Amino acid sequence: MKQMIIEKTKKLLRFSVYMLLPILGGGWVGVSCTDAWDDHYDGTATGVSSGTIWQAIENNNDLSNFKRVAVACGYDRALKSSQVFTVFAPTNASLTDAQTESLIARYQTEKLQGIEDKDNSVVVEFLQNHIALYNHSVSSTSKDTITMMNGKYNVLTGNGIANANFLQDGDQLNKLYSNGLLFTVDQSVKFVPNVFEYLRNEGEGLDSIRNFLYSGDPLYSDSKWKLYYKNFIASKSVEGGIDSLGRTVYLDSISEQTSKLFSSIGLLNKEDSTYWMVAPTNTVWKDLVEKYSKHFVYDKTVDRILSVGNIDSLNYVNTRKAIVEGTVFSRTINKAVFDGASAATDSLMSTNAVPMYELRRYYWGNDSLHYYQYFDPRGAKGVLSGTTEVACSNGKLLKASQWNFDPQETFIQTIIVEAEGQNAIKEVSKYQVNEETKDSMPTISPIPKTVPSAYADNTPNPYYNKVSNNKYIEFAPQEGINHTVVFNITGVLSNVPYDIYLVTVPAQAETKNVSPYQRRPTKVAAYIKYKDENGDVIGRGNGKSLVSKLETPTESVGYLKLAEKYVFPTSNYGLTEDNPRITLEVSTDVKSRETRLDTGTHSAVMRIDCVILKPHVE
pTM here? Predict the structure, then answer.
């Protein structure tokens, strides 16, 4: 009988809510009425009290300081609306008059600085840290994680929330008002910043990296490059009804602060993820900017192809990206290290690493390359060594007063241009066929070739997997003897010494049965072309020949060194252009008598696997 009365009472309350919705103007949108009230009944409710949460706060003298902060920030409007909340209000015993005055003063100071309420630290870190949307009732066995209005996750039990304990008990614990629940707590709920927030608000000595991540925010950076922005989140905002045009009006708009860099380094503002970030102190940052900026020097003509900014801003962004990329680590792919494994063989993969070997070949041209992956991270020279840890709500920030990241393990990378790759070939040599139209035809035919795992007779192919991707291009002349192929070279850094290689392939890599003529080597010459800082083209005729008459091997894959420690004065890193400003011209360099079928010693056929620019290591 008692159970029947309870069920009837619940149905009556639900019916009352449905009838009340038109009067409230749809403020319950976003949560099922049945679900909201059933959530209330999971605890030990004593019925619905009269009035709103705000009226209850006004009538409680012990909450006068909490009330003063809410009024100063305009939150009284939200808490008296039809939106459903659960409020955890600290009493005057813990929220003193002095603390209250300090909070109000900080709110007003930020207001004068032009900070909007949705970004004001008092609103985000104090008020929204004590309020959750919807009803969250408790029982003696409760242990749930709830989301506060600022996106923080806090554990809610029958005794309290996070570090704060409930002051009510028994019948007073789940006190339900017309727009939600009100709990009183013995201290303020501690605000724990995530990694991104820590850098913004509390990162003493980390102003430099903060200013970069928040580039475009007038309060935290003087950079005009817009990396920082905000995303409005309707589901977390407080609705205030519908205007005359049928649009939703919000009493409180909730936005998520983020940065365009997060797409490459990790979502440092996400509360449901776990990240570690190694952040250089200002002194280290200044030193790194000075060292790295020389690798992103662009020629003056680059300004013409930039849709935003100029070469100075391009240098600014890429120099600083080179510092931060590879410094963020996710627990998802580093569980052993995050959980304390200390074996020297442990490796730490940043969010910029490529865990799968197949994808490493796709991104970097070789699956043996392991950029942004660091071995023995806790060793004496490990990337975590010498850092100071700061606990954040979504992981750790590790302050680094020394820098153990080797740039040749991060942004100074080997460049591999596959001959068969899309846009790898700029042009091949041509001859003119029509004086009037100036139309021309190529003198050579680029023929794609594949290295099979076995020959036609099923014997193993010894060249299989010795040619990158097991593909190459054969350049066979149609007319004349010597001919040329020009490769586009992209991603080059300035002032980095490169060893430049041309990788060639013997004829028998494709088939076992090749004629003696096909086995012949060829001789090649190579020329590099680029633009200097003034935009003047430096190339053939300017003394920039790399080599002349290197001979290709006939029985093995050849690594012909075209240059050692070759330094480009300008970079084309990060540029998207139809005609890359750095090219490599490779030509055959044989004489007619050398290619005779009967008495010759060489061929004019080139078989090219790839071009490699490898940063020189002493």
Answer: 0.79
